[in-house]
Amino acid sequence: MELVIEGLSKYFEKKEVLRDITFRFQKGKIYGLLGRNGAGKTTLFNCLNRDIKTDGGDFYIDEAGQRRETTADDIGYVLSTPTVPEFLTGREFLKFFIDINQKNIQDLKSIDEYFEIINLAEEDRDKLLKDYSHGMKNKMQMLVNIIAKPHILLLDEPLTSLDVVVAEEMKQLLKTLKEDQIIIFSTHIMELALDLCDEIVILNHGKLELVDQENLNNEEFKNKIIDTLREESHA
Ligand SMILES: Nc1ncnc2c1ncn2[C@@H]1O[C@H](COP(=O)(O)OP(=O)(O)OP(=O)(O)O)[C@@H](O)[C@H]1O
Question: Distance from the CA of 40 to the center of ligand 1, in angstroms?
Fold first, then answer.
């Protein structure tokens, strides 16, 4: 399975944020999406999630040469600012999510087993989501996406608010998920991208560009990424 983007463009008034983007993302890989502030990473995710309209181009799923449109079920989107129904407890939210998605969930587990995946303390499971910390809400968002296992997982700066232990657990979890999914992960943290991702993709001048790792060691690769990102500031 591949997510194919062809000639995608997006303007905000006269500002061209995404410029004729063409790229193929492959199943089984975690892609680190790097770009400077305002480069258009969130805009790209919003387009792929159909939250905003594109101004040109197309994207679709290619399954063994068969082209099909993406559906809402294909895509999971974890926002940097988590949005959860604040009036529900963690347990009520999970139960509701599982109830409405039951037919699509493989290997259904108990609610508490799901909480164990994200190491949410027992005392927090019956608290209202409005009283969860930013990191805890983020973990809940990650968890529903882990349960639903969409074909394409878009993660917009998801680990930034997690403490080091949880971030490490999430990284390991993402590595186990990637086999069946395309994971696109935007981050400003270069070490995280290098550590977690199979490919590094830079959003530069409104275009997506794969950074070829060749035989570079981590330090050289890092410098190459910074050089590419720096070039944009002179554009
Ligand atoms: N709804 C909108 N209306 C007008 N301009 C917008 C809108 N959304 C985003 N932009 C502009 O599009 C550009 C890209 O923004 P976007 O949020 O996609 O960047 P980003 O790469 O995610 O940035 P960051 O890393 O800082 O989060 C910015 O110049 C931003 O001001």
Answer: 5
